[in-house]
Design a protein that fits this description.
It contains 21 helices and twelve strands. The longest helix has 25 residues.
Length: about 550
């Protein structure tokens, strides 16, 4: 089997159906929080002052996406699903954390979602960290004190600052060996020969904090800490992957044929091999629990969004279903629309949601799956089983798109977010209706082809307009594509090729149409006037 990026082999289904997070944006809220939280662990002592310099998409939309609150929350040590994120500024005041935001502007040479974090601590230490939010809640630390590094935080990671001198690395590895820690990967970065250096050790197993005093006591070491990423579900050690079931869509079909299983069953098998059956079951139960809440509560008790653009639209669709559904969308698709729109309303109030695969597209998959399952299965156990397998199917498609293309609006436009979510949902719908794995992937490819080129142009940088309506259109695209595939309509371009097409189209989009709120609907006169009235949208 051809070698694929390691990230594919070690990415959990619940990094696609996840993270479970406070809205409104997986890249600009959850990913930003993770950048800041990891950065704070690199500082000796409690942070007392922090300056965030925001670049590219972050610079243009940080208020509307809640990036400012998320960054502060990360420095304070909050998790992605902590509802206190919305109160991060008052929490910072209570804890004596001084914070400031600086607009760095646009720099096409760096990642679209980049933040420089300058920290000072109660012990007089300081640290400058560059973080990049990669989409779907994933992040990377790319520089520490001006030195290029690569830290994802997905595994147990020991970070050590030390002098670059003979014997330094030998002393460190010896200390870890004495503590019975198995090193999978070790990378050392340095400013210059004989200057400052940073060593990053990715190790097997949970962090062994007893080793920190030993490492810190070494003569050449100036600081050492474990980096722990909030909300990460991967339990594999670095460099270890599950036995290969599939690396792409073509091999997924082959695995389904070899095992005589659906896509959802194959993905479940992969997840259980990766994290164990108990943990897989627990994670899926938690995902479904949050999905039920996010798709129903706003229909009963709608709340005004942060920007004020959303306030009960999902409930309007839900209540109007009896009047309009029979001659337009039908009752099931109307319910799916209402549920999908409800998720965006919950997210836009900084409520807890499941990114699937992102927060901006989080309504499509649960809207479709939770609306359809009760129509096809008629007792609780059967509904739950169908829901789980459908979500695993959606995760399989999302995994392929996340690793071979992208799911971040700042990189690929809304086609990468709502397009990917709709493709995931279409495949799930086909499986729920008894379609073949080939038909499910046909539906996913058809969906992407019909949403190709969809731009990301949030009004005021808020994940509200047109995001909520685009989730509704994503539902409609998923239903349509599923029915086409089930009826025998084939996709001319297979999913693996369509993923590359989507990526190329996304890279061809100008930055103004990739989540910067500088083009498209975001700059229409009516949108600009509405944003002026909002008062909190953009920087």
């Amino acid at each position: 089997m051809p070698t694929k990026p390691l990230s594919f082999a070690t990415t959990s289904a619940f990094e696609i159906l996840g993270p479970i997070m406070v809205g409104p944006s997986s890249s600009h809220t959850a990913g930003a929080l993770r950048c800041a939280r990891v950065a704070a662990t690199l500082l000796e002592g409690e942070p007392t002052h922090v300056t965030f310099t925001l670049w590219n998409s972050f610079a243009h939309t940080y208020r509307g996406h809640g990036t400012d609150r998320a960054l502060v929350a990360g420095v304070l040590g909050l998790d992605t699903d902590d509802e206190r994120i919305r109160d991060a500024f008052s929490l910072a005041e209570e804890r004596g954390l001084d914070y400031k935001f600086v607009i760095g502007g646009d720099d096409p040479s760096i990642h679209p979602n980049t933040v420089d974090i300058a920290l000072e601590s109660s012990k007089g230490s300081s640290c400058n960290v560059r973080g990049e939010s990669l989409g779907g809640g994933k992040m990377r630390i790319s520089a520490i004190n001006g030195v290029h590094v690569e830290i994802s935080g997905l595994y147990t990671t020991l970070f050590v600052a030390h002098l670059d001198a003979p014997g330094a690395l030998a002393a460190l590895t010896g200390a870890l060996a004495e503590a019975h820690m198995n090193i999978a990967f070790c990378r050392t970065y340095r400013t210059e020969q004989g200057g400052h250096a940073y060593s990053v050790f990715e190790t097997d197993g949970a962090p062994q904090h007893g080793v920190l005093p030993i490492v810190r006591s070494l003569d050449l070491v100036t600081y050492a800490t474990f980096i722990e990423l909030p909300g990460s579900v991967t339990t594999l050690g670095p460099g270890i992957s599950v036995p290969d079931l599939f690396d792409d869509a073509a091999q997924l079909l082959q695995a389904c044929a070899e095992h005589d299983l659906s896509i959802g069953h194959v993905m479940r098998m992969r997840e259980e091999r990766m994290v164990g059956a108990d943990r897989a079951r627990h994670c899926m139960e938690r995902v479904i629990e949050v999905m039920h809440e996010e798709t129903t509560k706003p229909l009963v008790d709608p709340q005004r969004s942060l920007g004020g653009f959303l306030n009960g639209e999902a409930q309007c669709v839900h209540h109007g279903s009896a009047l309009h559904a029979p001659s337009l969308l039908g009752s099931t698709q109307t319910e799916a629309l209402a549920r999908a729109m409800a998720v965006l309303e919950r997210s836009a109030t900084m409520g807890v949601i499941v990114a699937a695969p992102t927060a901006g597209s989080a309504g499509v998959v649960p809207g479709c799956v939770l609306a359809v399952a009760p129509k096809l299965a008629h007792d609780r156990d059967a509904i739950d089983a169908m829901t789980e397998e459908a979500l695993y199917c959606a995760a399989a498609v999302g995994l392929i798109l996340s690793t071979s293309a992208c799911v971040a609006g700042a990189e690929g436009g809304c086609q990468a977010e709502v397009g990917s979510a709709a493709a995931m949902a279409a495949a799930a719908l086909v499986q729920m209706h008894g379609g073949t794995p080939a038909q499910a992937l046909d539906a996913a490819s058809i969906t992407l082809s019909n949403l190709l080129g969809l731009v990301c142009d949030p009004v005021g940088g808020l994940v509200e307009v047109p995001c909520q309506n685009r989730n509704a259109i994503g539902v409609a695209a998923a239903f349509t594509s599923a029915q086409l595939a089930l009826s025998g309509v084939h996709a001319l371009v297979p999913l693996d090729e369509m993923a590359k097409v989507m990526l190329n189209v996304g890279h061809a989009l100008p930055s103004s149409l990739r989540e910067t709120a500088k083009g498209g609907i975001a700059v229409a006169p009516s949108a600009l006037r509405a944003c002026d009235r909002c008062g909190m949208c953009m920087a």
